[in-house]
Amino acid sequence: MNALPPVSRLRVAIIGGGFSGAALAWHLARAHRPERLSISVIEPRPTLGGGLAYSSEEPSHRVNVPAVRMSIAPDDPQHFARWLAGSGELERDADAIWKNGDAYPRRRVFGRYVAEHLAPYLASGAVRHVGGLATGVTREANGAGWAVQTSAGPVIADIVVLAATHPAPAIPAALASLAEAPGFVADPYAASALARIEPDASVLIVGSGLTSADMIAELDRRGHRGRALALSRRGLRSRGHPDVRGEPFGDFASAPATSALGLLGKIRVTLAAAREANVNWQSVFDQLRLQGPVLWAALAPSERARLVRRLRVFWDVHRFRIAPQIASVLDRRKAAGTFDTIAARLVASNDEGENLAVSFQRRGQTRIETARFDAVINTTGPAHGRALQLNPALRSLAEAGLIRVDAYGLGIETNLDSRAIGRDGEAVAGLFVAGPLARGTFGELMGLPEVARHAQMVATEIARLVDGFPSVEAVGANASAGQNWYFRPKRPPKTENPTLYI
Length: 502
Fold this sequence. Notes:
Blueprint lengths: L9 E6 L3 H13 L5 E6 L36 H9 L19 H18 L2 E4 L3 E6 L6 E5 L4 E3 L1 E4 L21 E2 L17 E4 L3 H12 L6 E5 L27 H17 L4 H10 L1 H7 L2 H19 L4 H13 L2 E13 L4 E7 L5 E6 L1 E4 L8 H4 L1 H8 L19 E3 L5 E7 L5 H4 L5 H20 L4 H9 L22
Parallel strand pairs: 1-2, 1-7, 2-3, 7-16, 8-14, 9-10, 9-14, 10-11
Antiparallel strand pairs: 4-5, 5-6, 11-12, 12-13, 15-16
Helix pairs in contact: 1-3, 1-13, 4-9
């Protein structure tokens, strides 16, 4: 009787150890014994799970949804809330519990929660943290594997997952002349980025979304009482949460709209029905969020592009709400006359030494105004459209024709299994995308619940590859013959003698 070849571990390299990459590693490690799977997470930060979003040490930066709606485990929505209750963090943070009883802990607390759940797998060796920056990715000549170059040394893998963080905000062209000015803050989440801003300084914040709100809250905590102005093209401020949370309201999925205009019409009708039923508008957007994948899938590419171009900004300010603690700071500052938001476009800027001069044109007006500020903070949001140029690992894959920007400029194009689509329009075997960079395919993929579900889905796809084959040695033999085993859509049929099929 012929003995089976020895079972080898399938090697998975995850580029990015923020929430997306950490959640993926956690789901994979839970699903498989270490002898079947080797997981390496490439992340330059000292701990996994925090990433850009949840590593901030600033006390005023809070999660922007109630803790009961945050979880690394999509099938267990109370997972984080239970951990939080026993963590001692609420006792150390008197402001975390809002007056309606909902908890909005500091963002670093959620990062700690993810790190603690991943810690046992790091300790056992099931997951390895490669503490370096991924600088390049190359595919082996026979297409059977990958080499990831990092600042900590090379990582060899059978499967690579791109779970990179959001690109840093791009500096608007009109502010390029301020890039080297001492009062200009290009990266608002850099450590102590706002520390040099004096309490009475006049501040311009470019952008009016979540990051802009974070900056006002942080400035206020640091004792700032000067004038602060938030400027954006439409002047829309992120909305807040209702005093009483309700259940999702409406039905957009049973007969999904096939055009952006049709979807907008359904939203307006549903909002009117919600008002009649004394239901808050947030419940309507909660339903839109839940049914988002169905709605996105029902739209043709041209309608998706129209939705992104025309309605995305309105969606963002209603969908990505600010914690009530931060909303109260903005409301207090506005009432005191030390904070305002305007709709305007930037025209030019100049570093005058004593001040930073910024010229802008208010929406609906022709006159160009120039105002002078002590500090300018750039909060224009992640440069998603430039991710493939700014991230060296992604750039190497793009130059090799193995990934490309999606049609809507939101990230990386994938198929419905989250496999990357190459320059030739075909899915690339063994190359997956996890997290917000895949939202061009899946639509709403920025909020934590959606990212957690997507990480679980990608883990399931990879788990099928691990479960479906008796040995990686046999897999490698087939791959070297031009048969990409990890691109196979179905499991092989049962036979007396185990054989690999494509």
